[in-house]
């Protein structure tokens, strides 16, 4: 598997190893049964040392594909000295844990991800327990019931958990990751509370994880230990990145793009439009996050909520709730709870 230039001539998720810049390679790894199709892992090397930004999902197919791709740049899995992980979602974190067990290598993760990692590592924790509580608060009983049915046969895994602690908790600051290559760790809460991006100032690159994606708007606050106002955090993080020098965008899902600023402007505009739309639906009579989500359209295809699979229905309802709560914070709506369900009004 020889490296090829990352010139967008093939679909971004096509397996391979793609040269982004001198010493920087993009390696898409598969996400079976996921609409995103792949996650980008970035390999940084000076010819002697090797660092990965994000790692992929602990799946045999991803393990094999990563091994082949690294072979194309004259490296092996055992050569990875460090995994710099943007956030704790399984498609970014768990393969790093699996590879650390076999080969060593240190894992570094944002400090604010610790509560979610602890929640995931608790034995017997049922999937999406926090999200079920939030769906109840959103008045989304039909979605909640469908999720419960979907996981009715769930049993705790018999193998070891992949939610082990990192070797290092990352905080804001600049670090030398390879001789001659420095990265700035920039906390960007929102997608998850402990999400970080890595800024390569000399290379003009931003490894953006799921914070800035070129084709989709990232989900907001999907994590085992939710924060109080994930959308406020996310928009603040977007503005923070917008105030910094522009970079090439190296996302976790999607093709490398020439400008972080251009995409951030689109994301900020999208959420401002969405806030206005959601406020209008409340003015028209919607009272809960679920009722509001039913009145909106979703994805670029303009689908109704019921056309989405149950997992994406859950994300849609919770994102609607995050927008409604921000409108309350801004004084544009009011909210009150009755029997555990949050109701909104102008």
What does this structure look like?
It comes from Prauserella muralis. GO terms for molecular function: hydrolase activity. The chain has an eight-stranded mixed sheet with strand order 1-2-3-4-5-6-7-8, with helices on one face. Strands 9-10-11-12-13 form a five-stranded mixed sheet, with no helix packed on it. Strands 14-15 form a two-stranded antiparallel ribbon. The longest helix has 24 residues, at 260-283. 44% of the residues are buried. The chain has helices spanning 60-72, 90-103, 114-121, 129-137, 141-150, 230-243, 260-283, 289-295, 310-329; strands at 4-5, 18-21, 24-30, 38-45, 50-53, 80-85, 106-110, 168-170, 173-178, 181-187, 196-200, 205-209, 248-251, 334-338, 341-345. By secondary structure, the protein is of the alpha/beta class. It folds into two domains: 4-123 and 161-258, Metallo-beta-lactamase, Chain A (4-Layer Sandwich), CATH 3.60.15.10; 129-156 and 268-345, no CATH class.
């Amino acid at each position: 598997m020889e490296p090829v230039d990352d010139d967008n001539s093939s679909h971004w998720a096509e397996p391979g190893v793609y040269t982004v810049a001198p010493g920087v390679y993009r390696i898409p790894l598969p996400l079976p049964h996921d609409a995103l199709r792949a996650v980008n892992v970035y390999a940084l090397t000076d010819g002697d040392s090797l660092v990965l930004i994000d790692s992929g999902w602990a799946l045999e197919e991803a393990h094999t594909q990563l091994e082949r791709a690294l072979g194309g740049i004259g490296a092996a899995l055992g050569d990875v000295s460090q995994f710099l992980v943007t956030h704790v979602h399984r498609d970014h974190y768990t393969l790093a844990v699996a590879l650390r067990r076999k080969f060593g290598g240190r894992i570094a993760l944002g400090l604010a991800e610790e509560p979610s990692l602890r929640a995931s590592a608790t034995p017997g924790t049922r999937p999406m327990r926090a999200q079920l509580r939030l769906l109840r608060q959103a008045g989304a009983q039909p979605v909640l019931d469908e999720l419960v049915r979907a996981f009715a046969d769930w049993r705790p895994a018999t193998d070891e958990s992949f939610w082990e602690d990192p070797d290092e908790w990352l905080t804001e600051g600049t670090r030398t990751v390879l001789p001659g290559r420095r990265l700035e760790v920039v906390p960007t809460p929102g997608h998850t509370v402990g999400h970080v991006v890595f800024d390569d100032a000399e290379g003009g690159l931003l490894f953006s994880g799921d914070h800035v994606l070129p084709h989709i708007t990232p989900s907001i606050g999907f994590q085992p230990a939710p924060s109080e106002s994930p959308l406020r955090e996310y928009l603040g993080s977007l503005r923070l990145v917008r105030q910094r020098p522009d970079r090439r965008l190296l996302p976790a899902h999607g093709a490398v793009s020439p400008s972080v600023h251009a995409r951030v402007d689109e994301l900020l505009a999208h959420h401002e439009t969405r806030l206005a739309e959601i406020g209008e639906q409340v003015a028209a009579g919607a009272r809960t996050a679920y009722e509001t989500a039913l009145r909106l359209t979703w994805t670029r295809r303009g689908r109704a909520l019921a056309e989405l699979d149950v997992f994406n229905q859950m994300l849609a309802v919770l994102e609607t709730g995050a927008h409604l709560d921000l409108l309350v914070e801004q004084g544009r709506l009011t909210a009150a709870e009755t029997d555990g369900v949050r109701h909104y009004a102008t």
